[in-house]
Design a protein that fits this description.
Elements lengths: L2 H12 L5 H15 L6 E8 L4 E3 L4 E9 L2 E2 L4 E3 L2 E3 L4 E9 L18 H15 L3 H22 L13
Antiparallel strand pairs: 1-7, 2-6, 3-4, 3-7, 5-6
Helix pairs in contact: 1-2, 1-3, 2-3, 3-4
């Protein structure tokens, strides 16, 4: 999925064109509005000494999971961009990272295709605001927010993966 595909679908539904630069800006805004739960997950492995302060990666947002010697581990402290462990050992850190800004309309968006329809609705809402059609824009923005809420509730149900059906 890329911005060009999202833009084309929004243009079809609106029966008007959207500028590429607007589509890029709005798609990036949309990804940020969806929140960090849809942002990329990264992993790092390291061996830590007890009490030593470790600097987290620059793109670190939050811990998804931390294991020590293959088992879940919860005894750590994070302050600002630093992490401290009371125990020495081998650690695996899964963390949420910042979403890299998309600069080109053809760049791939590293999100599941199930997010395409809400993104289409977001672009439509922004285009309608630009046209001065505030009432209709609010309708599409509301549908965007409801769609994202539904997806988050569905995808995160009991932390178990399953297939989500979407109509598009």
């Amino acid at each position: 999925m890329n911005i060009a595909e999202i833009k084309v679908r929004a243009e079809q539904l609106l029966s008007e064109s959207i500028e590429d630069t607007d589509a890029i800006d709005w798609a990036n805004d949309c990804i940020h509005e969806m929140g960090e739960k849809v942002w990329p997950e990264k992993n790092i492995s390291f061996v830590a000494d007890a009490g030593h302060v470790y600097i987290l990666p620059n793109d670190f947002i939050s811990v998804i999971a931390l294991t020590k010697d293959g088992r879940p581990y919860y005894r750590y402290v994070i302050r600002n961009d630093k992490m401290v462990f009371p125990d020495s050992g081998a650690y695996e850190l899964a963390y949420r990272s910042y979403f890299k800004r998309i600069e080109n309309i053809e760049d791939e968006i590293s999100l599941s295709p199930m997010y395409m329809l809400p993104m289409v609705k977001y672009l439509m809402s922004r285009q309608l605001v630009q046209n001065g059609e505030v009432e209709m824009s609010m309708k599409w923005e509301s549908e965007f927010k409801q769609g994202i809420s539904d997806l988050k509730n569905t995808v995160e149900y009991k932390n178990k993966p399953f297939r989500v059906k979407t109509n598009f």
